[in-house]
From TrEMBL, chain A:
Belongs to the binding-protein-dependent transport system permease family. It comes from Muricomes intestini. One of its GO terms (cellular component) is plasma membrane. It is a multi-pass membrane protein. Coiled coil: none annotated. The chain crosses the membrane at residues 15-43, 77-98, 110-130, 158-180, 217-237, 265-287. It is found in: Cell membrane. Residues 69-286 form the ABC transmembrane type-1 domain. This is Carbohydrate ABC transporter membrane protein 1 (CUT1 family). The keyword Transmembrane helix applies. Keywords: Cell membrane, Membrane, Transmembrane, Transmembrane helix, Transport. One of its GO terms (biological process) is transmembrane transport.
From TrEMBL, chain B:
Transmembrane segments: none annotated. Pfam families: SBP_bac_8. This is Carbohydrate ABC transporter substrate-binding protein (CUT1 family). Residues 1-21 form the signal peptide. The lineage of its organism: Bacteria, Bacillati, Bacillota, Clostridia, Lachnospirales. Keywords: Signal. InterPro entries: Bact_solute-bd_prot1 (IPR050490), SBP (IPR006059). PROSITE patterns: PROKAR_LIPOPROTEIN (PS51257). SUPFAM superfamilies: Periplasmic binding protein-like II.
């Protein structure tokens, strides 16, 4: 026992003991399921997983011939294209405006953060009711202002923007708060020096704030990208993929194939693998770019 | 001598008791009922009743746990993610003793469900008291997989105030679909955001209940082979044309959530399950309830049966304990009430036994009387033959694609039906292999 204690007590080894719990959890809940999903994608497996028939690449071939899967990739791409830039740049601008520690800014930070602590279900139901085509508050207000009757949640081509807005509204606060924390870490002397040189607020923001918080920028960009590509909860509770599948994201479709009564775990796993590869590819590209810039 | 008398007396009492037991045990139920195997057993009970009805279920289960004299404890778990919970448990070789689900679950989880047809032998439940067509719905051949708990049919609801405002008789609902369409036009009042008809494009169950009245079942047994019936189905074509015409004219909203609109008093006529009444009652809507108009496909009583199932995870003792709970649920107490009756009256679901339907409180309930007025002998199949294992695929994939394509003008009615046929053919093919 003493020998074991001595062995692990060395600084170079004790680090492993401290990280062991996290590594074990990571292996149990991320690595093993990931490997299993890869494996399952080559089998025809029902929801109960009591039988498995090896079918090679068939699930992948089927996925790329499945119009709903291809459509879900398109929907996810549109959603990501809308959410990520607005989230990453919009929250940066807002963060710059509320970064000073005064009462008003503290209040605004709390307001922006409020949706983050609400559950997606509550947010979804709330917006669904507010934007309902006939009984929604906003719809009725717009109609009374003579703007016509807008069917926000049931118009193909429009609803994806509405869902994107809800999603941005929901997670905007967390990005803004992370930016605020990063901005507050920038040395005030840099701003003072710039001010003495006659630089205005916008120039200070572009030439001091933005370069100083680049690691945070990349962090938010990468996490929002990965998050947007996996969008599910807000869609599930607001539109469930409708109208006419125009808001059905890839994860929504994977979920319906995995856990609906018409389940096919193997097929769902194959689609998950495709999505995983897409996310990994984009993340690696961004990581590469980030390292290059640093 | 005294001792002899005592022995004789005890002996006679034993003989008397044994003969009395024999008189009552001619149906062969005695062995199990008296086996006492279930005594002190704890059983797990999973379901997805997360709403207000779930609160009532919790109360009922608590009541059983306190009242039953066998010391049986029912440990209930209500989950919003019932499907995932069930599938992962079964995959891990576990599962609940008893569960409540749609009888269609037998197609997905059939390997994990026990035959419960002996429930009528091993309890005092009378099979003849159960409406046979509902039992048939829960059966596969001679095997019964679910004991009915709740009958989910769809009914027509109409807003009497809107009828009156449109000059229609508030006590006379449409008897045909032609009347429905015609009256929808009269009821619609754009200035008040009122729509005559409330058929949702995103409500496959509602669509299915209606369209089968027009064109019959979507999948039928064709000499031992499953056959899909979308393409060339004149009834379905008529329904889709009617829906499209009403949507285009503005008599039916292109909206996923029509129930909220009905509760807000903005829908003249709609179809839905018994839960619709809760929203209408809460909102104080003056409404009528009736059977969905029959169409060209003839008389039908399409329902979904929710039932108690015993899984393969249950031991014999647990199965017996679960039977005791099911028996208690369907047995009258001294006041003449039963959990099944209370459930029907409180939640507004029609009864599945004749004895409950015969109760005065039940007959006096206007809604329940209407719901039970469908011919119990009429076919109960819902959208597909009740033995077709792919019903969920038809409901989750084929019908939504078809109605969405029509609602949003992506395809003509004929093209939508052709596409639905091709999707359904793929599903049917899987089960014909």
């Amino acid at each position: 026992m003493e020998r074991v204690r001595k062995y692990w007590n060395k600084p170079s080894r004790s680090a492993y003991v401290f990280v062991a719990p996290s590594i074990i959890l990571l292996i149990l809940f991320s690595v093993i399921p990931l490997i299993m999903a890869f494996g399952l994608s080559f089998f025809d497996v029902p929801i109960t997983m009591n039988t498995a028939k090896f079918i090679g690449w068939n699930n992948f071939v089927e996925a790329f011939h499945d119009s709903r899967f291809l459509n879900s990739l398109k929907v996810t791409a549109i959603f990501t294209g809308l959410e990520v830039p607005i989230q990453v740049l919009g929250s940066l601008i807002v963060a710059a405006l509320i970064s000073k520690n005064n009462k008003r800014n503290k209040f605004l930070r709390a307001v922006y953060f409020l949706p983050v602590i609400c559950s997606a279900t509550v947010i979804g139901i709330m917006w669904r009711m507010i934007l309902h085509s006939n009984i929604g508050f906003i719809t009725a207000a717009m109609q009374s202002m003579g703007l016509g009757k807008i069917n926000f949640m049931n118009t193909p081509g429009l609803t994806i923007y509405v869902v994107s807005f809800i999603s941005i509204w929901r997670s905007f606060g967390i990005s803004a708060i992370i930016y605020v924390t990063a901005i507050q870490q920038v040395s005030p002397s840099l701003f003072e020096a710039a001010e003495m040189d006659g630089a205005g607020k916008i120039r200070q923001f572009i030439h001091i704030t933005v370069p100083s918080i680049q690691p945070t920028f990349w962090y938010i960009l990468m996490t929002r990208f990965a998050g947007a590509l996996q969008i599910f909860d807000i869609i599930y509770v607001t539109t469930n993929g409708g109208p006419n599948y125009t808001t059905e994201s890839t994860v929504s479709y994977i979920y319906s194939r995995a856990f609906s009564s018409n389940s096919s775990m193997g097929y769902a796993s194959a689609m998950s693998v495709v999505l995983f590869i897409i996310i990994m590819f984009i993340t690696v590209l961004m990581y590469h770019r980030m390292n290059k810039e640093e | 001598m005294k001792k002899l008398k005592r022995i004789t007396a005890v002996g006679l009492s034993v003989i008397l008791a044994a003969s009395l037991a024999a008189c009552g045990g001619s149906d062969g139920k005695e062995d199990t009922k008296e086996s006492g195997k279930a005594k002190g057993t704890t059983i797990t009970f999973w379901n997805s009743f997360t709403g207000a009805d779930g609160d009532m279920l919790v109360e009922m289960v608590d009541k059983f746990n306190k009242e039953n004299k066998d010391g049986i404890t029912v440990d209930m778990d209500i989950s919003a993610d019932f499907d995932s919970q069930l599938s992962t448990a079964f995959a891990a070789g576990e599962g609940p003793t008893m569960m409540l689900s749609s009888s269609a679950y037998r197609f997905t989880y059939g390997d994990y469900l026990q035959d419960v047809s002996d429930v009528f032998d091993k309890t005092d439940l009378d099979k003849a008291d159960f409406i046979q067509s509902y039992l048939d719905y829960c059966s596969d051949g001679d095997s019964l997989y679910f004991v009915p708990f709740q009958i989910v049919g769809y009914y027509m609801y109409w807003n009497k105030d809107l009828f009156e405002a449109a000059g229609l008789d508030p006590d006379t609902p449409p008897a045909t679909w032609n009347e429905w369409q015609e009256w929808a036009g009269k009821l619609t009042d754009e200035s008040k955001n009122v729509y005559g008809s409330g058929i949702s494009y995103d409500y496959a169950y509602q669509i299915a209940h209606i369209m089968q009245r027009f064109g019959g079942l979507a999948v039928t047994d064709d000499n031992g082979k499953w056959k899909a019936n979308f393409a060339g189905n004149a009834g379905y074509e008529k329904f889709l044309n009617m829906y499209k015409a009403m949507a285009d004219k503005g008599d039916n909203p292109v909206e996923a959530d029509t129930d909220s609109m009905a509760s807000a008093g903005q829908i003249g006529m709609t179809a839905g399950g018994p839960w619709v009444t809760a929203g209408l009652d809460t909102a104080g809507v003056n409404y009528g309830i009736g059977l969905i108009p029959q169409g060209d496909a003839g008389d039908m009583n399409s329902v979904e049966v929710i039932g108690f199932a015993i899984t393969t995870a249950a031991s014999d003792e647990e199965k017996e304990a679960a039977y005791k709970f099911i028996e208690w649920w369907n047995t009258e107490n001294d006041d003449g009430s039963s959990p099944a009756l209370e459930w029907s009256l409180t939640n507004g679901f029609p009864a599945y036994t004749y004895s409950v339907q015969d109760k005065d409180e039940y007959k006096e309930n206007e809604k329940l009387s209407v719901m039970s007025s469908a011919d119990p002998e009429a076919p109960t199949d819902f959208i597909t033959d009740s033995n077709f294992p792919g019903i969920n695929a038809v409901l989750t994939d084929v019908i939504p694609e078809m109605i969405n394509a029509v609602a949003f003008g992506n395809a003509s009615v004929d093209a939508a039906l052709e596409k639905a046929q091709s999707s359904a053919d793929k599903i049917v093919e899987d089960y014909n292999k």
